[in-house]
Amino acid sequence: MEAKTPAEAFPSIGTVQNPALFSDGDDLLLSYEIAPAAGGGIAILRFSSVIYFEQNPTNTKGLADAKYPTRPWEFTEISGADRTEKWEALQPRFWTVSFNDVTVEVVFEKVEYLDRQPDGTCPSVALVDFLSRSAPSAHAR
To answer: How confident is the model at residue 63, as a pLDDT?
Structure first.
């Protein structure tokens, strides 16, 4: 098993707030605090064609005991793990993402940076706001 920093560059993860997640069964939205040194605010990412994800109550102090390599407050891409064996033909990617009190594991095909919201909010509020702005209007039907 090999762990590395992903090729994609996203704003650094803040060390205080935990993320907010939303899944529609195909995509996973991840809303997280951006580190003050990276400008602060909230970032929202979309993982597409998600095969598997989970949120674990593993905090940064417990990462040494984690099953998969994970660095504190970082995105870690893992290759050669059992997590992707069943779907090898799809060539999925496997990441762990560490936050203050939780770790997110996600197996997916594509990831993209969708939005950045300014300081003064939390990940869950930013995610709800983003979803409400992105949803098609009920009047458009």
So the answer is: 85
63 Cβ neighbours under 8 A, 6+ residues apart: 70, 71, 72, 98, 103
Residue 74: alpha-carbon gap to chain centroid: 10
| Helix, strand, coil % in the chain, rounded to nearest 5 | 25, 35, 40
Instruction: Answer whether residue 71 shows pLDDT above 80.
Output: yes
* Among 29, 51, 12, residue whose Cα is nearest residue 112: 29
- The rounded distance, in Å, linking the Cα atoms of 44 and 19 is 10
Q: Give the tens place of pLDDT for each residue, 72-125.
A: 999 999 999 999 999 989 999 999 999 999 999 999 999 999 999 987 789 999
Instruction: Give the whole-angstrom CA distance, residue 73 versus residue 54.
Output: 17
The two three-digit tokens of residue 81, written as one number: 């793990």
DSSP code for 79: E
